[in-house]
Specification:
Blueprint: H1 12-17, E1 18-23, E2 27-32, E3 39-44, H2 57-78, E4 82-86, E5 97-102, H3 124-138
Antiparallel strand pairs: 1-2, 2-3, 3-5, 4-5
Helix pairs in contact: 2-3
């Protein structure tokens, strides 16, 4: 008897802090549960990926394609002034890419968003409309 292959799972903290938008060929697209900022995550569905360099070169290229696609859609949907794109992972070791729409009127401008303002709950109708627009424009259904 051979053991079943390991299954990719979203880190429990990311599961708690996000809303699932859908899956691209490599990455899961998620919305952060913080209405202060239009804030997305891309999480490559690869077991034990902590750093971008843990992906092979083809996966790295696919990740860049997905970052570009999702970033363009986020900018179009939000009409933001600036995008912040980062892979930090200091608290959550699972590889994930933050894509945050920024504008001078947001709670943290011009600083990074982490730790500036307490998370604000999304209005259910607004976040549903946002996710619907993202899915349509990213080609997720």
């Amino acid at each position: 008897m051979s053991a079943a292959a390991p299954t990719w799972l979203l880190h429990s903290q990311l599961e708690k802090d996000t809303i699932n938008v859908g899956d691209l060929p490599l990455s899961r697209v998620l919305v952060i549960k913080d209405a202060n900022y239009p804030w997305l995550l891309l999480v490559p569905r690869r077991i034990d990926a902590v750093e971008i360099i843990d992906l092979d070169e083809v996966e790295q290229a696919q990740l860049m394609t997905e970052i570009t696609r999702v970033s363009r859609v986020l900018k179009e949907v939000t009409k933001c002034d600036k995008l912040n794109i980062a892979a930090l992972g200091n608290l959550v070791p699972q590889l994930h890419i933050h894509i945050i729409a920024r504008r001078p009127s947001d709670a943290a401008w011009p600083r990074p968003v982490w730790g500036v303002a307490q998370a604000l709950n999304h209005d259910p109708q607004e976040v549903a409309a946002f996710i619907s627009a993202l899915r349509r424009k990213i080609w997720l259904g």
